[in-house]
Amino acid sequence: METKEAFRIAVQSLWANKLRSVLTLLGVVIGVASVIAVVTLINGANSYVATKINKQGADVFTISQQPAFTTSYKEYLKFQKRKVIGLDQYHAIQQGCTLCKEVGALQSTTGKIVYGTQSSTDTQIRGYTAYMPEMQNLDIAEGRSLTQSDEEHATRVCIVGSDIEENLLKFADPIGKEIRVDGVPCTIVGLGEKQGKTLGQSQDNWVAIPLTAYQKTYGTKKSVTIYAKAGSGAAAMQAASDQGRVIMRQIRHDRPGEDDSFTLETSSALAGLFSTISNYIGGVAVAIAAISLVVGGVVIMNIMLVSVTERTREIGVRKALGARRNDVLLQFLMESGTLSLIGGIFGVIGGVVVAKAVSILLGFPAEIALWSVFVGLFVALSTGVFFGVYPARKAAELDPIVALRSDF
């Protein structure tokens, strides 16, 4: 029997039992869709983080009270007990880190912004030093950034995100307008470039003021995060971060042999950590999805066994007319493989649709990996062939005389 003929017979058989075929496909569809959706979302998240870090620069390291990611509440409490990082330590890095090209610091909180009769809540209020907007990958669309003079004199000026312009100022020219940041008047001197949403949360609902002005309003008890930019290349990054670490250990009186009482992180380390975490999550999700594929494969095997039983007489006739064992084997393997491959195709489509829906509704970045599509189809086809071997062998080994005597 030719492969083309076997495929035609397989399609005819599946079409003759449409409802049964659709129900059989569900396990494969769900399994493949889950894999495609998870891989698409994780690939998008990794690309998003990599893009942000690359645009910010792989030559930036941060010094903070605690790391960006903590794996347990116990660790979080441990880091919270550390001494805060104050402006004096920022100035020490700024003056003492000769290998750092630029040094900045920031603090942030959430508060209320008012303009006329309009107001917004849960707006992120950032305290920036002069170079922080550039070091945080923040482009100024209109007006100017914060200056050294603003920082030194604690000037009541600010840069705003596009949400403030759209929702409070109603697209009026923001430059020169006065808003109230938690009740304190502030003149807008710059408008940040629109950044969109991530995980459903707007990245443009913020106001940035000079860090010195920020601390006049909110106090100095909370820790600042220090950003430092080294020269290009891994060696320059290593040398600058080592120098920054030595300065911080001296200021904070960390004893030789003791762990740092602060956290120093590089952009590449953060990207690697995020990639590791997302891969673990993806691995777990794929493992769960694999269960659906196994269930789908078992269902396919059961249905193929039923099909063999129903078509026993047909198999006997084909063998009596000269069909060989391999012809029958190929026919049923083609049927189970076609069934699972169709499930894989619908699973790929479903997975992409789910990922894109999540991206649109929640703002989660999604990027389709072409390799995942081929892997999904291959796994689906392999599942059908693997679980179709036993029913196919059972059909191929039927004695034609016994099969012709069947009542079916």
TrEMBL record:
Record flagged with keyword Transmembrane: yes
TM regions (residue ranges): 21-42, 280-308, 329-362, 368-390
Pfam families hit by this protein: FtsX, MacB_PCD
Keywords: Cell membrane, Membrane, Transmembrane, Transmembrane helix
UniProt membrane topology term: Multi-pass membrane protein
GO CC annotations on file: plasma membrane
Sample GO molecular function, one term: transmembrane transporter activity
All copies of domain ABC3 transporter permease C-terminal, residue ranges: 287-399
Protein name per its UniProtKB record: Putative ABC transport system permease protein
Lineage: Bacteria, Pseudomonadati, Acidobacteriota, Terriglobia, Terriglobales
